[in-house]
Amino acid sequence: MHSIKTFWSPELKKERALRKEESARYSLLSDQLKLLNSENQKQALLVRQLEEELRLRTLRGGASLEMQRQMEALITENEHLVREIRILRETIKEFELRLETQKQTLQARDESIKKLLEMLQAKGLGKEEDRAMIQQLQIIAQKQIDDLRLEIQKRDQEILSCTPR
């Protein structure tokens, strides 16, 4: 039993480190989203002010060409910020789903490890059988880890391809 615990311990530490990294990314994206929301609100307020000013100037005798250019630039920038905020929200949702999936996977693994340990204790297998069982568990665990890493890399690439640069 002690040897199985030491076998799983480094893997569990890696999984915890991955969760911490995901959590840090999520926090960073949340901060970026808050910042962009703030910028968007400022831009929206500025656009409203400029629209009002433009309306007043139009009533007085027409708006200048420069003012129209500024309005168009601000509207374009505002649209860009809105799109960026939407993308960040989607990315945060994806990270939340990913974190939840990883938590569930880790819980399932913990349960299967406990069951396997209980089975080993109940059967009282000999040393040779213990080694064979441990090797089989190592192969299964390594395959699961490799599969999860590939999935994480795939999702990271998808997320990176969605975020603006």
What does this structure look like?
It is a single chain. This protein is an all-alpha fold. The protein has one domain (2-162). It contains three helices and no strands. The radius of gyration is 27 Å and the shape is rod-shaped. The mean pLDDT is 82.
Largest sheet: none
Strand content: under 5%
Mean pLDDT rating: 82
Q: How many whole angstroms does the radius of gyration measure?
A: 27 Å
The number of distinct structural domains comes to 1
- Which term fits the overall shape? rod-shaped
Please count the helical segments.
3
Low-confidence stretches: none
Considering DSSP H and I runs of 4 or more, what fraction of the residues is helical? over 70%
Task: Please describe the structure with a list of short key phrases separated by commas or semicolons.
165 residues; mainly alpha; 3 helices; 0% strand; rod-shaped; structural constituent of presynaptic active zone; ELKS/CAST; ERC protein 2; cytoskeleton; cell projection
Summed up, what is this model?
The protein has 165 residues and is mostly helical. The chain has helices spanning 2-60, 65-123, 127-162.
Topology (elements, then pairings):
Blueprint: H1 2-60, H2 65-123, H3 127-162
Helix pairs in contact: 1-2
Pfam families: Cast
Main location: cytoplasm
Protein name: ERC protein 2
